[in-house]
Amino acid sequence: MEWIVLVFIGLFAGALGALAGLGGGVIIVPALLFFGGMSFFTGEMTPQIAVGTSLVIMIFTGLSSTLSYLKRGTVDYKSGLLFFAGSGPGGIVGAWINKGLDMDSFTLYFGFFMIFISIILMVRNKLKPFPFAQKGKKRSFQDADGNTYEYHIQPVIAIASAFIVGLTSGLFGIGGGSLMVPAMILLFLFPPHVAVATSMFMIFLSAIVSSVTHIAFGNVDWLYALALIPGAWLGAKLGAYLNSRLQSDSLVMVLRIILILVGAQLIYQGLVG
């Protein structure tokens, strides 16, 4: 029963993560915290283990969806590596901060963060690019269909924003795409489908750094990880396929509602102890 639940958690998280460019950690971490307290789950579940295990899964989710997006020619490698220069160190700092959080503190902060993510998802299509979005180093990108896109990147702002995303990733065990995708669109005028694909590439790289840090701290339950990986791998491929075929607005709306409800529950749990 335990393994069946974990496989389905991985499948659901991988599909939604790749579809919306989130990475899937916003599903895996609260699911592990919730099911970890049930009788059919063996072993102790702490915030550190939930986060560390989730980040190991983010490696496979990020790799699977990145490979799918590479076939479609929508990954901007150069920009992804620039963002990784910030998200990698940020992930290490986030993992270090995570060490000092107990269950009540973590659930409280993570609950507020999930509600914040849901608000970002709610308004990201309505926000206008910042005035400086057309300044900086000009970059052009041609996708597999022959469409050419132009946008501008300021390296300092790119690395700084990615550092914040990496920090939240290492702290909460999420991929960081919920913040990175709108940042890429608003700050640098990335086309949405290129932003999602490039975000998953960055998530793959930064998850390696963050998870290695958590592994060094002993924060990974390898049995849970082995059960989650197959579902997450298949789910990420499904999500990447759906991203190129479907309008994801209705599914993202469902995700917003889920994040708000789960976030509220986590906040309540953190307050009452």
Automatic annotation (TrEMBL):
Provide the protein's localization.
Answer: Cell membrane; Membrane
Q: How does it sit in the membrane?
A: Multi-pass membrane protein
Supply the Pfam families for this chain: TauE
Q: What GO cellular component term, any one, is given? A: plasma membrane
Protein keywords: Cell membrane, Membrane, Transmembrane, Transmembrane helix
Keyword Disulfide bond annotated: no
Keyword Iron on this protein?
Answer: no
Q: Which domain of life is it from?
A: Bacteria
Q: Where are the transmembrane segments?
A: 7-37, 49-69, 109-127, 223-242, 254-271
Q: What is its main location?
A: membrane
Q: Which PANTHER family match?
A: MEMBRANE TRANSPORTER PROTEIN MJ0441-RELATED (PTHR43701), MEMBRANE TRANSPORTER PROTEIN YJNA-RELATED (PTHR43701:SF2)
Identify its protein family: Belongs to the 4-toluene sulfonate uptake permease (TSUP) (TC 2.A.102) family.
Q: What is this protein called?
A: Probable membrane transporter protein
Q: What is the lineage of its organism?
A: Bacteria, Bacillati, Bacillota, Bacilli, Bacillales
